[in-house]
C-alpha cells in the first residue's frame, strides 16, 4: 500500500446547484453532468443530490426516505411511521445496478400525512411533529435512518462518486425546479451512507464543502432545542441551525445567513450605526449559531437557493445566471459545461450570502 | 491542436508535453476544468488555451508563456518561477499563490487572495497586473514583488478591492489606480506617492497590459496612482505577546 506522501489525492469536496426561478423543471441529467465534471474533488466515499418538485402526485404528503441496515430496523421503523403518519405508499426507491456502488442499505420511501390525533395529543404544530418524529427514529431505532423528510422533494445519497450515485438512483428519471449535488471527500468522519450529503430535515437540505471548526459550539447550541446530531459528521448541524432559525424563529433567509456568517468584531466596529447594531445584536443573540471554519454551503429549500461562504473565504464557490436560471458550483467549469454562455458569472465572496428566491409559490402553481 | 473536451487532465497534459517536445507552441481547445495545464512549462514554450482551464493552471511555471482565452479558476500560477500568463477573462481565488518571479496579466478581475504570499529575491521580482478589481485578502502575507490594480470598468457599487487587503503584508508594493476603499486596507499599510522609479516600472506594466488587451495607455495613466507598502516588516510581531 502506498503511504501518505507517495500518493496524492487532489480532493476537496465538490458542490453544485441549479434553480429555475419560475419553477420550470430541469432534468436530473444536467446536475449529474455538472457535479461529474468535478470528479477529482471527491474520492468515492460519498455523493448525493437533493431535488425539489419531483413528487407532484404526492405534493401534499411528506416524502420520507429511509436507509435500513436490517429487517428488524425496518420493522421497528415502519411500526413507528404507520403509527405516527397516515401512509399511502410504501415502496423501495427504484435503483439501477451500478458496479461501483455496493454494500448499501435497503432503501425505502413512504408518502404520507401526519396523524392528526397523535399530533393534537402531542400539542405540536405539524412541522414540529414531523421533525420530532424524524429525530426520534434516527436517535432511537438502531439501523434506521430517515435521510429525507420534506414535501414534494427528496434527497438521494450513497457511498460512491456522485455521478455513480446519480446513475444508481436513476435521477435522469426525475425533473425538478431546484437541484443540489455533492461529491464527498470525508476528512474527520467516516464515509458511510447516512454521512453523505445532502443533509435534510423537512424541506431544508444542505450540501457543504469544508469543515466546521465551531461544530461542538453549534451542536451544544442546537441540542438545547431538541435536535440530536446522529449522522457522525459536522455538516448535519448546519441543517438544524437553518431549520431552527427559519422555522422556529421565523428569520428571513438573509438574516439567517448573516447569523451563520456574521463578520468579525473589528469589522463590525467600522460599520455605520445601523449595521453595527444589527450585527452586534445577531452576534449577541445567536452567538452559538455562528459557524466558523472553512466552508462553502448551499441550502436547498422550497423557497429558493441560498449560497454562503465562510467570512474568511477559505473555500471556492462560483455563481452564474442565465435567464430564469441560477447556477452554483465549486468550479466555474462545472457551470459552463451545462451553461456555456451565462449572462453573468462571478466568484461568491466570503460573508456575502447569495439568495436566489423561487418566484412562484407552490400553491400558486395550482391555480 | 488538442481538443480537450471531457477527457482526463493526465491525458491532456501528456499530449501537451508530447506536442511541445516537437515544437514550441501548442493550442488546446474546448478545455473544461482540466487541472495542471502548463505545469512547470519551460522558457521558449507557449500554450494557448481556449475554454475554462482547471485549478493550478501554470503552477511552477518555469519561464514559459500561457495565454488563456476564457476565465481561469483557482490557484493560477501557483508558486511560479518565471514566465508569463495572460488571461483574457477573470481568475478565481489564490491567483499567483507564492509566486517567485514572472508576470501575470488578467484582463478582468481576480477573486479572493490574489497575490497571496508573493515574494522576491534579488533579480527575481514577480508582477501581477489586474485590469478591473480584486476580492478580499489581496496581497495577503505579501513578501515581495508588485501588484498593479487598474480599476477599469468597475461596476457601480463594486470596490477596487475587498476586505483585509494586504493583511500581513511585509514586503513588495501594490499600485492602485483612482479611489480605493481605505476601510478595507489593513492597519499595517502606508499609502504613498509613486517616486520616479515607481512611475517607470508602472508604465512598463501598463504598456504591456494595453498591448495584450487593446486598452488605451494615456487614458489609464491619466488617473493618479497610489502606492501601498507595509509600514513594518513584522506586522504580527505582537500578535500573541505584547513585547
Radius of gyration of chain B: 18 Å
CATH level-4 homologous superfamily of chain A: Aminohydrolase, N-terminal nucleophile (Ntn) domain
Low-confidence stretches of chain A: none
CATH level-1 class of the domain at 90-230 in chain B: Mainly Beta
Order of helices and strands of chain B: EHEEEEEEEEEHHE
CATH superfamily of the domain at 90-230 in chain B: Glutamate synthase, alpha subunit, C-terminal domain
Fraction of residues in β-strands of chain A: 25-35%
Q: What do we call the CATH topology of the domain at 90-230 in chain B?
A: Pectate Lyase C-like
Structural class of chain B: alpha/beta
Largest sheet of chain A: 7 strands, antiparallel
CATH architecture of the domain at 90-230 in chain B: 3 Solenoid
Q: How much helix is in the residues of chain B?
A: 10-25%
What oligomeric arrangement do these chains adopt?
A: heterodimer
Tell me the overall shape of chain B: globular
Organism (chain B): Eubacterium coprostanoligenes
Domain Glutamate synthase alpha subunit C-terminal (chain B): 25-198
GO molecular function, one term (chain B): oxidoreductase activity
Protein name (chain B): Glutamate synthase domain-containing protein 3
Amino acid at each position: 500500500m502506498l503511504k501518505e506522501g507517495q500518493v496524492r489525492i487532489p480532493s476537496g469536496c465538490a458542490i453544485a446547484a441549479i434553480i429555475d426561478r419560475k419553477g420550470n423543471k430541469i432534468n436530473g441529467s444536467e446536475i449529474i453532468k455538472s457535479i461529474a465534471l468535478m470528479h477529482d474533488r471527491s474520492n468515492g466515499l460519498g455523493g448525493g443530490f437533493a431535488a425539489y418538485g419531483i413528487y407532484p402526485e404526492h405534493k401534499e404528503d411528506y416524502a420520507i426516505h429511509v436507509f435500513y441496515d436490517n429487517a428488524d430496523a425496518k420493522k421497528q421503523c415502519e411500526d413507528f411511521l404507520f403509527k405516527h403518519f397516515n401512509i399511502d405508499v410504501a415502496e423501495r426507491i427504484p435503483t439501477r445496478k451500478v458496479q461501483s456502488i455496493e454494500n448499501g442499505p435497503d432503501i425505502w420511501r413512504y408518502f404520507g400525512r401526519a396523524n392528526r390525533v397523535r399530533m393534537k395529543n402531542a400539542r405540536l404544530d405539524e412541522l414540529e411533529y414531523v421533525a420530532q418524529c424524524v429525530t426520534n427514529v434516527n436517535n432511537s431505532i438502531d439501523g434506521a435512518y430517515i435521510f429525507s423528510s420534506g414535501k414534494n422533494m427528496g434527497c438521494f445519497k450513497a457511498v460512491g462518486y456522485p455521478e455513480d450515485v446519480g446513475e444508481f438512483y436513476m435521477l435522469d428519471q426525475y425533473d425538478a425546479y431546484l437541484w443540489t449535488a455533492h461529491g464527498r471527500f470525508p476528512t474527520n468522519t467516516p464515509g458511510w451512507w447516512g454521512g453523505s450529503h445532502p443533509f435534510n430535515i423537512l424541506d431544508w437540505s444542505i450540501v457543504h464543502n469544508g469543515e466546521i471548526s465551531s461544530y461542538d459550539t453549534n451542536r451544544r447550541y442546537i441540542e438545547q432545542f431538541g435536535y440530536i446530531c446522529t449522522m457522525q459528521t459536522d455538516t448535519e448541524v448546519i441543517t438544524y441551525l437553518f431549520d431552527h432559525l427559519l422555522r422556529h424563529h421565523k428569520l428571513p433567509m438573509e438574516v439567517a445567513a448573516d447569523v451563520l456568517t456574521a463578520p468579525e468584531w473589528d469589522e463590525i466596529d467600522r460599520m455605520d450605526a445601523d449595521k453595527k447594531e444589527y450585527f452586534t445584536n445577531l452576534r449577541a443573540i445567536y452567538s452559538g449559531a455562528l459557524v466558523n471554519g472553512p466552508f462553502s454551503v448551499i441550502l436547498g429549500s422550497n423557497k429558493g437557493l441560498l449560497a454562503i461562504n465562510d467570512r474568511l473565504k477559505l473555500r471556492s464557490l462560483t455563481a452564474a445566471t442565465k435567464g430564469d436560471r441560477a447556477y452554483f458550483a465549486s468550479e466555474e467549469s462545472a457551470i459552463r459545461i451545462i451553461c456555456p454562455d451565462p449572462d453573468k458569472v462571478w466568484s461568491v465572496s466570503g460573508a456575502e450570502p447569495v439568495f436566489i428566491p423561487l418566484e412562484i409559490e407552490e400553491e400558486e402553481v395550482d391555480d | 491542436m488538442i481538443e480537450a473536451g471531457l477527457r482526463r487532465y493526465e491525458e491532456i497534459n501528456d499530449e501537451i508535453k508530447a506536442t511541445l517536445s516537437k515544437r514550441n507552441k501548442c493550442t488546446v481547445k474546448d478545455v473544461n476544468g482540466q487541472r495542471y495545464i502548463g505545469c512547470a512549462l519551460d522558457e521558449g514554450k507557449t500554450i494557448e488555451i481556449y475554454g475554462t482551464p482547471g485549478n493550478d493552471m501554470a503552477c511552477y511555471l518555469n519561464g514559459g508563456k500561457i495565454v488563456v482565452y476564457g476565465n481561469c479558476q483557482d490557484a493560477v500560477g501557483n508558486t511560479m518561477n518565471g514566465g508569463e500568463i495572460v488571461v483574457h477573462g477573470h481568475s478565481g481565488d489564490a491567483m499567483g499563490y507564492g509566486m517567485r518571479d514572472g508576470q501575470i496579466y488578467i484582463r478582468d478581475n481576480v477573486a479572493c487572495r490574489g497575490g497571496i504570499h508573493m515574494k522576491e529575491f534579488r533579480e527575481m521580482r514577480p508582477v501581477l497586473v489586474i485590469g478591473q478589481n480584486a476580492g478580499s485578502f489581496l496581497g495577503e502575507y505579501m513578501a515581495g514583488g508588485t501588484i498593479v490594480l487598474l480599476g477599469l470598468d468597475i461596476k457601480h457599487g463594486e470596490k477596487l478591492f475587498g476586505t483585509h487587503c494586504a493583511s500581513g503584508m511585509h514586503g513588495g508594493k501594490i499600485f492602485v489606480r483612482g479611489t480605493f476603499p481605505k476601510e478595507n486596507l489593513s492597519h499595517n499599510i502606508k499609502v504613498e506617492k509613486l517616486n520616479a522609479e515607481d512611475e517607470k516600472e508602472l508604465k512598463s506594466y501598463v504598456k504591456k497590459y494595453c498591448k495584450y488587451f487593446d486598452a488605451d495607455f494615456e487614458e489609464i495613466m491619466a488617473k493618479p496612482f497610489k502606492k501601498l507598502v507595509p509600514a513594518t516588516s513584522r506586522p504580527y510581531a505582537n500578535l500573541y505577546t505584547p513585547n
